[in-house]
Amino acid sequence: MNIKLKSLVKEYEMSVSVYNGFVKKRIKEMQAVLQIDEFTFEANKIYGLIGPNGAGKTTLLKIIAGLTKSSYGEVTYGGAELNDERQREITYASQRPYLLKDTVYNNIAYPLKLRKENKLRIKSKVGRIMAEFDIYYLRNQQAKNLSGGEAQKVALARALVFEPELLLLDEPTANIDPNFVELIENAILERSNKKEITVIIATHNVGQARRLCDEVIFIKAGKIVESGKAKEMILKPKEEETKKFLAFEYDIG
Amino acid sequence: MEYILNGMIEAFKLLLSGDRQLYSVIFLSIYVSFTSTLIATFLGVPLGFILGLKSFKYKNFVGRILYTCMSLPPVVVGLVVAIMISRRGPLGSLSLLFSTTGMIIAQTLLVTPIITGIIFNSSKERGQEVNDICKTLGGNKIDMLFLLIKELKVTMLVAIATGFGRAISEVGAVMIVGGNIRGHTRVMTTFIAMNHSMGNYSTSIAMGVVLLLISFITNSILYKYVMGEKK
Asked: Tell me, what CATH number does B42's domain have?
């Protein structure tokens, strides 16, 4: 499904100190952390959101995921508003994964159990994805005993196991060893090639955006500065701010 | 020092002697505290979840009130309940003063804020996260509720055990509301206080041992669950 953003604004109440000549006062003020006039994420593509910390990447992902409400504007999914049925086809994997207080196996099986799939199918699907992510040996461990990287792999496996149509990933490989990053990236690419799935990845890693994504969007201070084909934009950015960011994050050479 | 040792020896003799009065006091104590904890659980657990998960305007203020109520002095609660249910009080016609029901009411008032407060605190912190994860994995509202209960199982156990611990060990409220009437409203804590002031140290110690034992058993069960989670 394609995702359309229209005049999207997210505001938060923040307290600001103001000096009026006599005293310093703290007042509460609405501040926009995200402002997007219009953007369409087309179906079956992989998008990369790049930009500095606090640019609004996570906020945007959470709004699309239906976890946070926008202050103004709207998001449409395949031309319609978000409903329960569509919500089931969307998943969001946070950069700090929350795993259930249960075994690794039960964590990955949980979305399938929610979909009332039968035990045999659950077993085979979970087994397959655990093998793919090289976490089969962890299956009976309690999730809370996992390391950061292991937890992230489990969270990703859990997000992919039910084959969602829209996959929102927030820094999916932030805690993962370099030698496993390729494995994760391949898992995402493979699904994108095989099935109709739209992926939006927020990442710091410009190299990763270049390897994985069809399109890249550069966000700064809540606004889209530039967007375009990944390979072109990363090598030849048009905007000054994008150039600066890319020069710092990714040595173009 | 010797009287303490003698007291201990006497205590164990007394415990094994099968004194009926002693056992009725223990039984009443457990009955009153268990019932009030049960009622407080049914009131406090849902209330804690609702207050913790909903966002409303004066949430922080409600939290502060709740935390204050968690440390209500039993004597004050006892006093208030006693005034309410005394013959001249607004609920006097029910004649609940110096009755088991009166004691249960007082202890329920003590325990409910404790259970509510503990559940409130952890559902406020973790509720959103659990709800989000359930939503992103395709769960509906009912799934969320089940998942939340599952994820906060240990917290709920801790809350209930803490509440029970409070109920069984407090003396102020049951003393004022129940009046420590022999064979009627005498419970372990009032029994200990009375026997101590009468100089019957061994009987006091004996009952103290029982009280500690109950506390130990409750906590062992709890500990087993909490550790079971950690394995």
From this structure: 1.10.3720.10
